[in-house]
Structures are given as C-alpha cells and as structure tokens.
Write a structure and sequence with these properties.
Blueprint lengths: L13 H5 L10 E14 L6 E11 L6 E6 L7 E12 L2 E12 L4 E21 L8 E10 L2 E7 L11 E16 L5 E14 L7 E6 L2 E10 L5 E16 L5 E23 L9 E3 L20 H23 L1
Antiparallel strand pairs: 1-2, 1-6, 3-4, 4-5, 5-14, 6-13, 6-15, 7-12, 7-14, 8-14, 9-10, 9-13, 10-11
Length: about 325
C-alpha cells in the first residue's frame, strides 16, 4: 500500500459525493480526492495480488497536490497492474490526472486490471465593488475561463485482434470539467461551461479505438450580471479524470495503457471587462471574496509544480515496462 501523508487527509470515498452539495453562503470551499486500484489474478491462486489506495482532503484554504499510486508488483516483466491519480485545487483552478497500465505475458494469467480516479472541486463567493457607483446599480461582467484536457487509450495487440476466443484487452479514459457562476442567494445559474472527452480501445469489439470529445475546451468567454455592493456570486469549478485497463487471458505478451489529464487546467482567466447599464466601460472596480480574500478580477495563477514524485515513478516504471516488453519480443 502506498500512502501520501497529509495532515488533513480524510479517509473515505464519501468525499467523492460530498462535492455535489453547495457550501454555505459566502464560504470558500476546496476539495480533492484520489482513488487507485491495481490487481492481477493468477490461475491456481485464490487471493489476487492487489494494491489500492484512496485519499481525500478538504479545506477552506488552498492546499498542495495529493496523489496515490497502486502497483500489484508481482513479476513485473511478466504481468502487473499499475495505477496513479493526483489532484490539486486552488482559488480559481482545478487540476486532476489519472493513468493506468496493465502488462501480461503468456497463457497462464487470468486477469490484470488497473484503475485511477481523481476529482477536484472549488467554490468561492465574491461581490462587486465599483467606487462612486450607486449601491444596487447593475453591471455586466465579462470573464475568461480556460480548460485544457487530454485523454488517451491504447492496447497492444490492437483492436484488429477482435473476436479471438482469448486475449481480450481494454483501455479507457475520461475527463470532464464543469464551471458555473451562480447567484449566491438563490443558486440560479448565471453562466455555465462544460467539456469532456472519452477514449476507448478494446480487442473484443468490431471497431477501432476512438476518442469522443463533447463541449469546447480552450479559452472561453462568459458574461453575467452583478449588482454593485449587492448579492455575491458563486464561482463553482469541478473536474474529474479516470483511467482504466484490463487484460483477460492473454495468449501472448499484451499491454493496455490509458491516461486522462486535466492538469493544465480548469482555470479562471480573470474579469476582462465591466460595463454599466448604459454600456460604458468601467475600469475601476474590485471583485473580492470576503472569505478567501482573492480578487476575481485577476486570473488564477497555476501552482501545479513539476510532475509529482508518484507521476515520475510511474513514468520510470512505464519505461522499464517498455524495456521488458522489447526484451520479451526479442526472445520471442
């Protein structure tokens, strides 16, 4: 079992569903969870070789990344399952990442699986302050939101091995983002952006691997109305990533790899324009959270460091796996 030590880590998968509830009015809330699982079953062995982990953290203040790694770690040159996930949430930004790998060789193995899931959620409330304007005056806010994500899935042999009685492989990945601006007192949606991508690669289907996007990633512009010194609005950002692999009764050396990356990122791009009821441009204003102190006139600045240690470890194991597979192919 692999663990990452965080003083405020919360054990339990309940956190995955807890983000669905709205926090109290004007409260800042940040939350992240990671879940990983890797296992393989061997003919004649009752207990599977299994490794799993989950971590959760929630706070009213920003925190660093949390990550988890699972590796079934038995005769890696022959067969093993591997999974990783990490999540980081800050004021105005959400980053999540998941990756899975399965490797198997020979007809004796029954099944190898790996799966990783990550989620991130942030919610904060801010009010509009325009010096010299009357309290209750209405303004149109234009802001930017940036979402970058990628998904990938691959099996070797590929899908052309379909319909064989054995040697079934599967790899699949998914990422999803959801950004909303809500009226703070009623929860009415003022602006909303969604995007997602799903990838699938299998040997037991009659079609090739595919990735299906939905929504529009990249830099997006949203507009909504706020009242000077009035009701706050709620910025709600959520991200999910998952990746899974499975190998069932291989007849030769097989691999399945998948990856879902929202690490660069769901990010608030700042308020780019404010106009009054007559359409005149306003340049002197603030959009500050009374809870966190962050001015949402400004863009979120990514605090995601270089790849976490566990991600680097996964990359190293993947490279070793490539070497093992090449060696096995040469011997074959």
């Amino acid at each position: 079992m692999h663990h990452v030590n965080f003083a405020r880590a919360v054990a339990g998968l309940a956190l995955l569903g807890a983000a669905a509830g709205a926090p109290a009015l004007a409260q800042t809330w940040l939350q992240a969870t990671v879940v990983v699982d890797a296992k393989h079953y061997v003919v004649g062995i009752d207990d599977p070789f299994t490794d799993s982990d989950y971590l959760g953290i929630e706070s009213a203040t920003p925190f660093g990344p949390i990550s988890a790694l699972a590796d079934s770690d038995h005769q890696p040159p022959v067969y093993h399952g591997l999974a990783i996930a990490w999540s980081q949430v800050g004021l105005g930004g959400v980053h999540v990442y998941a990756q899975a790998q399965s490797v198997a060789s020979g007809p004796d193995l029954l099944r190898v699986t790996g799966s990783g899931q990550a989620s991130g959620f942030m919610s904060d409330y801010f009010t509009l302050s325009v010096p010299g304007a009357a309290s209750g005056a209405s303004f149109t806010v234009t802001a930017q939101v940036h979402v970058d994500g990628s998904a990938w899935a691959e099996t070797v042999p590929g899908w052309t091995a379909a319909y064989q009685p054995a040697g079934q492989l599967a790899a699949f990945s998914h990422w999803e983002s959801w950004v909303r601006v809500l009226r703070g007192d009623s929860g009415t949606t003022l602006a909303e952006l969604r995007a997602r991508e799903d990838c699938d690669a299998r040997t037991n289907t009659g079609s090739g691997p595919f990735c299906q996007p939905d929504g529009t990633p990249g830099l997006q512009v949203i507009s909504f109305t706020m009242v000077n010194n009035g009701t706050p609005v709620q910025l709600d950002m959520r991200g999910w990533a998952s990746a899974g692999t499975s190998i069932y009764q291989p007849t030769q050396l097989t691999t399945a790899d998948s990856r879902a990356d929202l690490g660069h990122t769901i990010a608030w791009g700042g308020i780019t324009e404010l106009r009054d009821a007559s359409g005149a441009l306003v340049t002197d204003f603030a959009a500050v959270s009374a809870s966190s102190g962050f001015d949402y006139r400004n863009a979120y600045v990514s605090t995601v460091p270089d790849a976490p240690t566990s991600v680097l470890l996964l990359a190293g194991l993947a490279m070793l796996g490539t070497g093992w597979r090449r060696g096995l192919r040469r011997r074959a």
